[in-house]
Amino acid sequence: MTTLSASAPISDKIEWGRGLGRALRSQRRGDTAWRLALIDGPNMSNLGEGGRDRRTYGTINSIGELQGAIQALAEGLGAKAQTYQSNREGEIVQYIYDSADTADAYLINPAALTRRGAPCAIALSDSRRPYVELHFANIAAVGWSNGALITRQASGVVMGLRHYSYIGAVFGLIGALDVGALQTPRAD
Amino acid sequence: MTQPSPNAAASPMLSVRQSRRRWTIGMIDGPNMKHLGKRDSRLFGRIGSIEELQRLVVDFGEALGVEVRPFVSDHEGDLLEHVHASAPSTDGYLLDAGGLTTVSEGLRHALQETQRPVIEVAFYNLIANGEISVFTPTVIGRAMGMREYSYLAGLLGLVLALDDESFLNPDAADSPIVRRGGQPYAFRNG
């Protein structure tokens, strides 16, 4: 059994993600190497000790640990994930336009841009790729129930399960792409 | 309520999970969900029946090393009584309230009083469809918009979070970051 204490080295957590992906691979109904792009918005670079509130964000130690584990999870599942984080809205908008041709679907934690990040929502819409919105927290618990533009346009939402929101969403998104429940125009 | 799986070695997931507990997960489908196969395929896709959905989720649970117990009803009172009766032997719930999503205070109260984590699941993005759930503010989390894979995404996340002794694990020691009782932390509101 893997023990995954908060103090485990990053490499252990990345390998844990890979092992998880491999263990789940037989549950897929297809084998396309979907190209996912994971975007984390403002403040998510501040995960870890002394940074973001652990009552919301749990024991994840850094954005690199999160991104590394998600990349490895996708690889273990037979897909690919590129990752991006920025604290600057304009850079995220640029990233979406730049990556659309090499991504089949997006996963985005818009973080502080959730309610007022219209430029990101519009860029995602322009990408014509399905996207799943992610959150560590249950954002409805603070009254954000109605959903802003980015949520209304999303294919799906996974939230409230800390970094397990990301893990559940990676599996769910790949599974939904496999069975054609979410359409993507493959550019290649 | 949760014994180690007799087939512990059989599931590749058990070598990866942070706990070997065979969690018991209640899968609750509310009104209209019993009639999958006759519903709008633009929202629900190609799934043929509620039994097909339940089998998919139960089988995925087996692959994870947990037991999923499905229940579906068109009757709100039956759903309440199912929650009351099942809570002592249930570690967490997957909830698709179906036609009660926007209206049922009774089912919300019943689930909240179980002190079990609940993941709200839905085939489509309810918010995109103008449906504001009464359940979302008090459940631990939500997965929607990936058709039947919303259920699998929610189940996977729930099982990994139950395994985690810094999050939903019912045996976790008290700590500000543990959310054993299934209540969401309202960040920045204290």
Describe the structure.
The complex is a heterodimer of chains A (188) and B (190). Chain A is of the alpha/beta class and 188 residues long. Chain A has one domain (11-178): 3-Layer(aba) Sandwich (Rossmann fold). Chain A has a five-stranded parallel sheet, sandwiched between helices. In chain A, 39% of the residues lie in helices and 14% in strands. In chain A, 53% of the residues are buried. Chain A contains seven helices and five strands; from the N terminus they run αβααβαβαβαβα. Chain A has helices spanning 10-24, 54-57, 63-76, 89-99, 118-127, 149-152, 163-178; strands at residues 35-40, 80-85, 105-109, 131-135, 156-159. Helix content of chain B is 28%, strand content 14%. Chain B is built from five helices and five strands; from the N terminus they run E-H-H-E-H-E-H-E-E-H. In chain B, strands 2-1-3-4-5 form a five-stranded parallel sheet, sandwiched between helices. Chain B is globular. Classes of the chains: A alpha/beta (188), B alpha/beta (190). The interface between A and B is large, with 54 and 54 residues.
Quick recap of the structure?
The complex is a heterodimer of chains A (188) and B (190). Chain A has 188 residues and is an alpha/beta fold. Chain A contains 7 helices and 5 strands.
Topology:
The complex is a heterodimer of chains A (188) and B (190).
Chain A lengths: L9 H15 L10 E6 L13 H4 L5 H14 L3 E6 L3 H11 L5 E5 L8 H10 L3 E5 L13 H4 L3 E4 L3 H16 L10
Parallel strand pairs in A: 1-2, 1-3, 3-4, 4-5
Helix pairs in contact in A: 1-3, 3-7, 4-5
Chain B lengths: L23 E6 L11 H4 L5 H15 L2 E6 L3 H11 L5 E5 L8 H9 L4 E5 L18 E4 L4 H15 L27
Parallel strand pairs in B: 1-2, 1-3, 3-4, 4-5
Helix pairs in contact in B: 2-5, 3-4
